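call fold target=LytTR family transcriptional regulator
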Amino acid sequence: MQYDLSERSLDLFDALWHGELNTCLEQVDTGFSFVSPLTNAHEPAPKQLESYCKRVSSLPKILDYRVLQVRRVFETEETCIILLLGNVLDSSRETIGFRCTFVWHIQPEEPRLVHMHFSLPLAPPDMPIDKLSVSAQARGNPIILRDTDGHSHVVNRAEVLYLESRHQYTIVHLPQRQIRVRIALSELLRDFPDYFVRVHRSYVINVLHVEQISRREIRLAGGSHIPIPERRSKSVREEVLDAMIRARLVSERENSISPKRK
């Protein structure tokens, strides 16, 4: 059976807006995580969701919302990420931007929600590109790396799959080769844009190449599996998902403002 996860995310957001706890809980999967500006991050996710619904139950009386964009920002056979962008309107019709992210685990029986992140306030969806965190310059400019044998390599940052710390070296993993440099991972990371996320003491991944995220590891294009520390599983997944969304937003915004070739 096919499910319209965009429509389901819209319905779930409406239930969240009106504080309908049971409707939300019916959709969640084991290991569900929830992030919002109104909850205590130290509480279990279902408890956070319950607290959130109680606190927002009176909001629909004084505020309204308008969803402006619904985007599928990531999709594989097992995972689908839906992003809602819109505005919250008060009685004077002044607006505050919001963003809500839904991460669905696609199962044979029925999709289940594994993560929901509601961010408020935000700048409106038409925010200028220079306010976003990933610039075209950071993505497009190559970096020159000198390996341990003294050879120089010109590398497009976006093509790097991940960085790996190994003793006093860092291994730069690309689809067809590896480059070993005598630079600490933390130092090398300064030369990479923020769609590179440190998910482990020894690993930094490029979220542009993420194919699947689970509680214990991240699978990248080409079949690489990067471990996630168990104690940081939730925070790492949230950082990776946020970076994926930021990168996709900037890419779409740049494409929309780039002059078309005649």
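return ok
Residues 39 and 241 are 19 Å apart (CA to CA). The first strand starts at residue 28 and ends at 35.
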